[in-house]
Amino acid sequence: MTAFASGEATGNLPPLITSEQQNLAEAAGLLAGRRLAVLTGAGLSTDSGIPDYRGPNSAPRNPLTYQQFVGDEKLRRRYWARNHVGWRYMGHAAPNAGHCAVSRMEQRSLLSGLITQNVDRLHELAGSRNVVDLHGRFDRVICLDCSTVVSRSDLAQRLEELNPGFAERVGREGLIEIAPDADAVVDQTADFVVAPCEVCGGMLKPDFVFFGETVPKDRVSQAYQVVDDGGALLVAGSSLAVMSGLRFVRHAHQQGKPVVIINRGATRGDDRAALTVNVGVSQALTMLAAELPDLESGDGSQ
Predict the structure, then answer these.
(1) Which long-range contacts (CB under 8 A, 24 or more apart) does 247-250 make?
(2) Does residue 156 contact residue 81 with C-beta atoms inside 8 Å?
(3) pLDDT tier at 52 (50, 70, 90 boundaries)?
(4) pLDDT digits (tens, 9 = 90+) for 201-239
(5) What is the mean pLDDT of the chain?
(6) How far apart are CA 284 and CA 164, in angstroms?
(7) Range picked from 8-22, 41-55, 64-78 for highest mean pLDDT
(8) Are strands 36-40 and 111-116 parallel, antiparallel or unpaired?
(9) Tens digit of pLDDT for each residue in 13-48?
């Protein structure tokens, strides 16, 4: 069973080595005096116990695509059975030091905004307010037929009534793995009963973007505005493997704004970065929050 962080827990972070401190000092110097657009990915939430998809120590994953979800009743039933188990463990995750550092930077007016590829809502729990949840939220469910949105906790009650004791039984048998989208490895799902929309009887889907699905245009526009309003782009914990995140790196680079990428391992945006730092994301953001000076009067966009 996955063990989640119970709080910020900065004392549990491993110490930075000298070269990492030097790289982060260089990053702080490059970003100082600029209001930052921040883009975060799954690598930020690993210190909260939520595994990522593409980190150097990540297990191979084969996420369900949108096309499979809507087109295959068996796979959809299997997904909801796994999600019924996994979402409650996601709900016990707490913000880590990195989330709290980003929140502190926002409180000091150092950010133009925050774009996150994560669906775990940990930024909001840490106190961040100007957040674009690029890929949606794990705590809501939407009907694909009538667009009704309900809370995931309300659906959980319905699924428990339809499948009494299912999650507890799986827990006793031992949970193998949880993914960043609240998917869990669960066998024996053939008898799981999927709940339809209570309004129209249509197909329910978690209110986040599946692989193969398009990010809503208005959400993309909000994210571009965050980059436009900033004087630099700070990427933290994303491999930028998919275009939904990489496009903002390209956009900032085209505008001549410095891009700093903090991530364990290489990313697809490294060739457009002014600086890349291969270090733990929580440690890096904690140090940057402490090192970056307050902005002088002005918009801080240059």
Answers:
(1) 248/37, 248/39, 248/115, 248/223, 248/224, 249/39, 249/273
(2) no
(3) low
(4) 999 999 999 988 999 999 999 999 999 999 999 999 999
(5) 87
(6) 44
(7) 64-78
(8) parallel
(9) 667 777 888 999 999 999 999 999 999 999 999 999
Q: Which of 14, 3, 45 is nearest to 283 (CA)?
A: 14
**Helix, strand, or coil (residue 164):** coil
Q: Which residues are catalytic?
A: 135
Burial status of residue 222 (CB atoms within 10 A of its CB: 0-12, 13-18, 19 or more): middle
Q: Which two tokens stand for residue 133?
A: 């949840």
Per-residue pLDDT for 168 more than 90?
no
Calpha distance 195→187 (Å, rounded): 19
Identify the structural domains of the chain with CATH numbers, from first to last: 17-50+94-135+214-293 (3.40.50.1220), 61-92+137-208 (3.30.1600)
Provide the strand spans (E) within the chain: 36-40, 111-116, 131-133, 136-143, 149-151, 204-208, 232-236, 259-262, 275-277
